[in-house]
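Side project, low priority. Logging it here so it doesn't get lost.
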Amino acid sequence: MEPQHSVDIDVDIDWPVAEQRVLRYGYFGRGVSMMFCKVSGCLTDGKVFLSVSGEDSVSIHTRDTAGLRMLQKVDVKVVLLISKEDLLMKSLIPKLEKMTGCEVMMVGEEPLKDVQSVVEKNKLDWKDVAYMGNEAADASCLKLAGLSAVPAETLRPTLLKLPSTPARTPAGGGGQ
């Protein structure tokens, strides 16, 4: 996507920029009905905080959760993805569901195998799906999605070659 056809809307002041670009260049986008977003590495910054009492914790920015709620308000179904091997995130599924209002789904080493069935179940084409991932295993979903995105710090060559929109901020940064 050409830079003049996109804008990252993080704060209220970004809206006039978006409106001007639509007026000048027209609207080239299409809406999505469903978004899949990896939690580890996209909503979190990859850090695990350890305490003396033995508690592990991760951090998700409130701007990210606000953005997820905005998508839900415009009828975009948001599904958060957690790796089956990520024991800490597995233990946080109920909290994630409550905090975000999103369905949380566990995926294996090849997320496409798990995600494809959800796309088919909802009778969607991949052009109606957004996908945000950060690992080489996400490449197949990123290629298929009508809108794909990766965190700003993604350095994996396989992901950088894909037609995806890099975020302006690092994972877990709340789209500052």
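Brief comment: The helical segments are 14-25, 39-43, 62-73, 87-91, 93-100, 111-121, 139-144, 157-160.
Revisit when time allows.
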